[in-house]
Automatic annotation (TrEMBL):
UniProt xrefs under InterPro entries: GCL_type2/YbdK_subfam, GCS2, Gln_synth/guanido_kin_cat_dom, YbdK
Pfam family, one: GCS2
GO terms classed as biological process: modified amino acid biosynthetic process
Record-level Gene Ontology MF annotations: ATP binding; glutamate-cysteine ligase activity
UniProt key word Cell cycle: no
Domain of life: Bacteria
Entry annotated with the keyword Nucleotide-binding: yes
Protein name per UniProt: Putative glutamate--cysteine ligase 2
Its job: ATP-dependent carboxylate-amine ligase which exhibits weak glutamate--cysteine ligase activity.
NCBIfam families for the chain: gshA_cyan_rel, PRK13517.1-1
Catalysed reaction, written as an equation: L-cysteine + L-glutamate + ATP = gamma-L-glutamyl-L-cysteine + ADP + phosphate + H(+)
Amino acid sequence: MTDIPTLGVEEEFLLVDPGTGQPVALNREVADRAATGGVDLQLELTSCQVETATDVVRTTGDLRDQLVHLRRTAAEAAVDAGARLLAVGLPPTLPHEFPVTDTPRYRDIGERFGMIAHEQGICGCHVHVAVPDRDAAIAVGNRLRPWLPLLLALTANSAIYRNADTGHASWRSVLWARWPSAGPPPHFESADEYDAAVQMLCHSGVIRDDAMAYWDVRPSARFPTVEIRVADVPATVDETVLFAALVRACVMTALDDERRGAPVRPLAPYALKAAYWKAARKGIDGDGVDLDDHAAAPIPELLGRLAERVGPALDAAGDRDLVIDGLARVAEHGNGASRQRRAWARRHDVDDVLAEAAAATLET
């Protein structure tokens, strides 16, 4: 088994009015207040969002401590600015469009992409795992493709949108797929081929710059890592830690398979698309697509098989109990999408969903 790689996590959050639940354009004010507490928040495309980023860590225990601190500090800064911080994949209630954050890059994206950019409020979670080089990152992406739908189902947290049940556990992933370079990455033979594809997209005007290569796995442009971007922002810290631990084990397993020269599993594009759709539709509460035999199987069962497949990596990192217990807990109690639907079912009142999301955001 490979050495235990370091990891880091970025979480995106929604800012809403405490009374109405409407998204509020206060990301600069919240970031300024968080900075006084020693936390640097990043501004996202729309001005109702902020992003936290952990330091590079070696253990999931350290990761959890940092996530708790970052969420608490960001939530306190939001309160000071007159907002509420929510860990949700999409706003449960929203205006017709979101104001784009006033920076040259974001203004240009808003002008180029129109309503795709202006109808955002999309909040995800990105896990960075250290890899030896960019070619290793590409090889990991090729090997992670069959597992991405399961990771999406595990973290689904955007069932309620526009004051309605979307009928999907992750409506975020459906909206996100409208971007021209979103979704599962193609199979690339090398980092050079990846770079050529991104260059083509840029030169043709399909994307503005290489930072808009939004595929669900990509080599980081800034760090010596592979970045896994498939998830809704999880509802709770524990769910983020579970997701990150499972992702790291998947990356470690992929690196070991690559070193051993194990063949990359053939994957029909239509089957991967079907698995993504089922994951977005059902989340943790229904069947997914088993990409080994294309049969339907319960998502918790498929996640259990994945945990077994990456078990040696979980053992090496000391995360097996965390992941097995976490998957059992999610299978029994549900994830963020499950919480949203239970809250919505009480009275079909979005205020219940907002209250549930606010509580989950700071649950420890």
